[in-house]
Structure formats: structure tokens, C-alpha cells
Design a protein that fits this description.
84 residues; 4 helices; single chain; mainly alpha
Length: 84
């Protein structure tokens, strides 16, 4: 049960970061409006950010089995991003 809590927690945190934290920070760094700048892929996509953070986090914790947990984290991140 603790693993599922970790998966949901990492996915939700990544979606929140990719939606509300990184886009204003990237616009501030580029000093342009968000309509005129390119999309920085792993930081502005909830699926991508959930995959990379989940993969890193769970491989450190569980070894090679962490790849499966990282994939689940990306799937749940995409579901959270779409439906919540």
C-alpha cells in the first residue's frame, strides 16, 4: 500500500509542478509571454515529468522493478492531468 501512495504522490506532485510552477518560471526566465515561447518538454508535460521523476525515484528505491513503478506513475500522472 505504501508503494501505491508513493506512485500517486509523485504523479500528483509532478502534475502540479508541470501545470502551475514551471510555465510561469520558464516564461520569467525567457522574459516572453507564454504564447510566444517553445514548450520545454519534460517540465511542461505532466506525463513526461511524471515518467522521469517517477523513474528516477523508484529505480533508486526498488532497483530494476522501479521501471514498472515509474510507468505506472506516468500513467496516473496523465490521468490526473486529464481528469482533475
Amino acid at each position: 500500500m505504501n508503494t501505491m501512495t508513493d506512485i500517486f504522490g509523485v504523479a500528483a506532485l509532478c502534475v502540479l509542478l508541470s501545470r502551475y510552477f514551471f510555465p510561469p518560471m520558464i516564461s520569467f526566465v525567457y522574459a516572453v509571454d507564454s504564447r510566444y515561447r517553445p514548450t520545454i518538454k519534460p517540465f511542461e508535460c505532466g506525463f513526461c515529468l511524471s515518467w522521469w521523476v517517477g523513474l528516477t525515484w523508484f529505480i533508486v528505491q526498488y532497483g530494476l522493478q522501479g521501471v514498472i513503478y515509474g510507468a505506472l506513475c506516468a500513467i496516473f500522472g496523465a490521468l490526473i492531468d486529464r481528469y482533475l
